[in-house]
Amino acid sequence: MAGSGLKELWNTIYAANSIEKMITGHAYSRAVRAHMLTQVCLGKLILDELDLTEEFKITLKQHILSTDFTL
Fold first, then answer.
1. What whole-number distance in Å separates Cα of residue 12 and Cα of residue 5?
2. Which ranges of the chain does DSSP label H, i.e. alpha helix?
3. Which domain of life is it from (predicted)?
4. 27 near 21, Cβ under 8 Å?
5. What are the backbone angles phi and psi of residue 62, rounded to the nearest 5°?
6. How far apart are CA 56 and CA 34, in angstroms?
7. For the chain: N or C, fewer Cβ within 10 A?
8. Closest by alpha carbon to 18, among 3, 51, 6, 68?
9. In terms of Cα–Cα distance, which of 38, 43, 49, 50 is closest to 64?
10. Which residues of 4-24 are buried (b: 16+ CB within 10 A; e: fewer)?
């Protein structure tokens, strides 16, 4: 995962030592949650760039944000 930017992204939320443990597989549930949060953020950025009707964008965003990511 070197060069992917995940360390820099996750560093805004998690401590550096936690990130190393997440990447090496020692903090599994924390890593899963971080990956899901990353996916939601990327999905939102992609949706913002698509040429969709405003009503459809709102419906998609509500659906994405209503997903429960608690572990």
1. 12
2. 6-10, 16-24, 28-49, 54-65
3. Eukaryota
4. yes
5. -65, -40
6. 27
7. N
8. 6
9. 43
10. eebbebbeeebeeebbeebbe
By the 8 A CB rule, do 14 and 30 touch? yes
Query: How far apart are the C-alpha atoms of 15 and 33, rounded to whole Å?
Result: 15
Under 8 Å between Cβ of 37 and 69: yes
Alpha-carbon span 66 to 14, nearest angstrom: 23
**pLDDT tens per residue across all 71 residues of the chain:** 677 888 888 888 888 888 888 888 888 899 899 988 888 888 888 877 888 888 987 887 788 777 665 54
